[in-house]
C-alpha cells in the first residue's frame, strides 16, 4: 500500500433493484491510439522548485496569459506565505497601479476561491468554498450568513451545480478575517478556482439512502483533504493546465453526474469480490467543446482512491498542454496520447502498482431516477429526510439562518446541498415531520413540493454578478417558467437549465431543455439578449449530451417557443384543454 492509500471496508450488499425505465448506456468510444507517442512527449513539463511546481523553461513558448501570471508568482504564495494579508491592507488605487498586484486580485486570488467582480461589482468578490459531498453544518451555515449579511444588497449566497456554496459581496480588507472564520467552523475556500480540483461531488443521500451502493462521504472528504493538504495548501496539485472535476458515485440514480467529470469513480467489485471502483476520465464542458467521460478500463480498490487520483492529476499536470485555454482540459491530453498511453502514464505514477482492468459495474442500468424533494424514509428506522426546493439556488442571509435553525431543531444540525441547487435536511424524526412541514420558510419560500417544472430548474449566476455572462439568468429562468406553467401542464419532470454564456456553468448540455445566453436580433434587427436552445440532454445510465435545437432566440420570444417544445417533445397539454377534460 502506498503512503497515500487508505483502508476502507466493503459496503453492504446492494439492495434489490427499484424500477425499470432507464436503458443501458451506449458505450462511449475511447479515442483511437496515435500511431506512436515519442518518448520526449512523455517527459514531464513541470518541475518542483522551492516547494512549488513550475513549468520548465523549454516548454514556455506559446503559453497562455494565465500561465505567464503563474510563472511570475505562484498564486499559492498568497495563502501559504501570507501574501493575502499584505494585499488586504492595500487600497484598490494602490493595487491598480501595479500589474503585479492587479493580477493578484484578478487572477491569483482565484486559488483562494476569490473571484473579483470587476465588470459589474468592482472591488467586490465572490468566494467559492470547498464542501465535499455537499455536506455542511448549521454552524457553518450561520457563519456564512453572518458574512454576507454585512454586505447588504450586495451580499447573498448561491447553491452551485457542484454541491457547493458561493457567497457574494466580499471586500478585500475583510478576507483575512473571513478565512480565519472559515477555518474555525471547519471550512475552506482554498484551491476552489482556476487551475485546481473543484469540489468533490457525491451522493447527496450518502449514509441515509436505503438503496445506496456505498457511502461516498468518506471518499470525498479524503479527496478534499488530499487536494488541499488538509486546508494548508497543496502546491503539488495546484498548478494544473486547467480546472479539473471529480466525483464518487454511490447511487444507482447517478445523482453525481459522472459523465461530465474529469475523473469519476464508479462502484464495482473485482473478480475476487473485493469492492472498489471502475474509472471514467475526461468528461468536461467548455465554450468550444463538450465531451462525455470515457472508460479508462481500470479498476482500483477502495484503498487506492487517493493514490489513483494523485496519479491521474500528476499525469495531467506533467503532460498537459498549456497554450490555448480552450484546448487544455484533460480530455485533449487523452485524445493526443490515446487512452492506453494515458492509462500507462497513470499506472507509472502508482508507486509500483499495476492497474487492474475494469470490472463488473455495480450501478444498475435499468433504474428509475428518484426524486429527493419532499419527505422520504431513511435507512435508519423512524427517521426521514426532507428535500426542499431552493429556486435557482439563491439564498439570502436571513434564510440561511432559518435553514440552520431548522437543521438544529428538527434534524441533527446538518444540511446537504445538491447539484440541482437544492437542499436536503436529513435525520428528521418522523414525529417531527408535521411541524417541520408547517414552518413558514417551507410554506412560503423553499417548498418540499414545488411545481413539476420548477423542481428541476437550474440557473447559473448570470450577468447580475458574473462578468462573463451575456444575459441575466436567475430571475429570467423563474419568470419564463412561471409563464410557461400558466399555459401548459406536464405529467413528468422536464429539466430546464440556464447558463449565461458558453462556459456553461449551468450545464445546459445535460438538460432536457437548455438555454445558453447569447446576443440575438429582434424583429427590428436590433441587438438584444437571447439564447441558443439545446434539446435532449440525459443523465443517468443512458446519459447523452443535448444538441443545438434553435439558435439566437430573443429572450422576449421564449415563452411560446418553450410551450411548443413541451407540447411536441414532452407530452404537455394546454391548460385550457386540461381544464376542459377535468
SSE blueprint:
Elements: E1 46-49, E2 52-55, H1 65-72, H2 77-80, H3 83-88, H4 92-96, H5 99-106, E3 114-116, E4 124-128, E5 135-137, H6 138-149, E6 156-159, E7 165-171, H7 175-184, H8 217-228, E8 246-248, E9 263-269, E10 275-281, E11 284-285, E12 290-291, E13 294-301, H9 305-319, H10 330-337, H11 339-348, E14 360-361, E15 374-377, E16 383-388, E17 394-395, H12 397-410, E18 414-417, E19 423-429, H13 433-437, H14 440-444, E20 458-459, H15 474-487, E21 488-489, E22 496-499, E23 513-521, E24 527-535, E25 547-554, H16 558-569, E26 573-574, H17 575-581
Parallel strand pairs: 8-9, 20-22, 22-23
Antiparallel strand pairs: 1-2, 3-4, 4-7, 5-18, 6-7, 6-17, 9-10, 9-14, 10-13, 11-12, 15-16, 16-19, 18-19, 21-26, 23-24, 24-25
Helix pairs in contact: 6-12, 9-11, 10-11, 15-16
Characterization of this structure:
The chain is an alpha+beta fold and 582 residues long. It folds into 2 domains: 46-349, 2-Layer Sandwich (Sulfite Reductase Hemoprotein, domain 1), CATH 3.30.413; 457-574, Sulfite Reductase Hemoprotein, domain 1 (2-Layer Sandwich). The strands form 7 sheets. It has a 5-stranded antiparallel beta sheet. Strands 5-18-19-16-15 form a 5-stranded antiparallel beta sheet. Strand 15 (374-377) and strand 16 (383-388) form a beta hairpin. The radius of gyration is 23 Å and the shape is globular. The model is unreliable at 1-6 and 12-27 (pLDDT under 50). It comes from Vigna radiata var. radiata.
Amino acid at each position: 500500500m502506498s503512503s497515500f492509500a487508505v483502508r476502507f471496508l466493503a459496503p453492504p450488499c446492494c439492495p434489490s433493484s427499484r424500477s425499470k425505465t432507464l436503458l443501458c448506456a451506449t458505450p462511449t468510444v475511447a479515442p483511437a491510439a496515435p500511431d506512436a507517442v515519442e518518448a520526449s512527449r512523455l517527459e514531464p513539463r513541470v518541475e518542483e522548485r522551492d516547494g512549488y511546481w513550475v513549468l520548465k523553461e523549454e516548454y514556455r513558448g506559446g503559453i497562455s496569459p494565465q500561465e505567464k501570471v503563474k510563472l511570475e508568482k505562484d498564486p499559492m504564495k498568497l495563502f501559504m506565505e501570507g501574501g493575502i494579508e499584505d494585499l488586504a491592507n492595500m487600497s484598490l488605487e494602490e493595487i491598480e497601479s501595479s500589474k503585479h498586484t492587479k493580477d493578484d486580485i484578478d487572477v491569483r486570488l482565484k486559488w483562494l476561491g476569490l473571484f473579483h467582480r470587476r465588470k459589474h461589482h468592482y472591488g467586490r468578490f465572490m468566494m467559492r468554498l470547498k464542501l465535499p459531498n455537499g455536506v455542511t453544518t448549521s454552524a457553518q451555515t450561520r457563519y456564512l450568513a453572518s458574512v454576507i449579511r454585512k454586505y447588504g444588497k450586495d451580499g447573498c449566497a448561491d447553491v452551485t451545480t457542484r454541491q457547493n456554496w458561493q457567497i457574494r459581496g466580499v471586500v478585500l480588507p475583510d478576507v483575512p478575517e473571513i478565512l480565519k472564520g472559515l477555518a474555525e467552523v471547519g471550512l475552506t475556500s482554498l484551491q476552489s478556482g482556476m487551475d485546481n480540483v473543484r469540489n468533490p461531488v457525491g451522493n447527496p443521500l450518502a449514509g441515509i439512502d436505503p438503496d445506496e451502493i456505498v457511502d461516498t462521504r468518506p471518499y470525498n472528504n479524503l479527496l478534499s483533504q488530499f487536494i488541499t493538504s488538509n486546508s494548508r495548501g497543496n502546491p503539488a496539485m495546484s498548478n494544473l493546465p486547467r480546472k479539473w472535476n471529480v466525483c464518487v458515485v454511490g447511487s444507482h440514480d447517478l445523482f453525481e453526474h459522472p459523465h461530465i467529470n474529469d475523473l469519476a469513480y464508479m462502484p464495482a467489485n473485482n473478480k475476487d469480490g473485493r469492492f472498489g471502483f471502475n474509472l471514467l476520465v475526461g468528461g468536461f464542458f467548455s465554450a468550444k467543446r463538450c465531451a462525455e467521460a470515457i472508460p479508462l478500463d481500470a479498476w482500483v480498490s477502495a484503498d487506492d482512491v487517493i493514490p489513483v487520483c494523485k496519479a491521474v492529476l500528476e499525469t495531467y499536470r506533467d503532460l498537459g498542454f498549456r497554450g490555448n485555454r480552450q484546448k487544455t482540459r484533460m480530455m485533449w491530453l487523452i485524445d493526443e496520447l490515446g487512452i492506453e498511453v494515458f492509462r500507462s502514464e497513470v499506472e507509472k505514477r502508482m508507486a509500483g502498482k499495476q492497474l487492474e482492468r475494469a470490472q463488473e459495474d455495480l450501478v444498475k442500468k435499468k433504474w428509475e431516477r428518484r426524486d429527493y424533494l419532499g419527505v422520504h424514509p431513511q435507512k435508519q428506522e423512524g427517521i426521514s429526510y426532507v428535500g426542499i426546493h431552493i429556486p435557482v439556488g439563491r439564498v439570502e442571509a436571513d434564510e440561511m439562518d432559518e435553514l440552520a435553525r431548522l437543521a438544529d431543531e428538527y434534524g441533527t444540525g446538518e444540511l446537504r446541498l445538491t447539484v440541482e441547487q437544492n437542499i436536503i435536511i436529513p435525520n428528521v424524526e418522523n414525529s417531527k415531520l408535521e411541524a417541520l412541514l408547517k414552518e413558514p420558510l417551507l410554506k412560503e419560500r423553499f417548498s418540499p413540493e414545488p411545481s413539476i417544472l420548477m423542481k428541476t430548474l437550474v440557473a447559473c449566476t448570470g450577468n447580475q454578478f458574473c462578468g462573463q455572462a451575456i444575459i441575466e439568468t436567475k430571475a429570467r429562468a423563474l419568470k419564463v417558467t412561471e409563464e410557461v406553467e400558466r399555459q401548459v401542464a406536464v405529467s413528468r419532470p422536464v429539466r430546464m437549465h440556464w447558463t449565461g454564456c458558453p462556459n456553461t456553468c449551468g450545464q445546459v448540455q445535460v438538460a432536457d431543455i437548455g438555454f445558453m445566453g447569447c446576443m440575438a436580433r429582434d424583429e427590428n434587427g436590433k441587438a438584444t439578449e437571447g439564447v441558443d436552445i439545446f434539446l435532449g440532454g440525459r443523465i443517468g445510465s443512458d446519459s447523452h449530451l443535448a444538441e443545438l435545437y434553435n439558435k439566437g432566440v430573443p429572450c422576449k420570444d421564449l415563452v411560446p417557443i418553450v410551450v411548443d417544445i413541451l407540447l411536441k417533445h414532452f407530452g404537455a397539454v394546454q391548460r385550457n384543454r386540461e381544464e376542459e377534460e377535468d
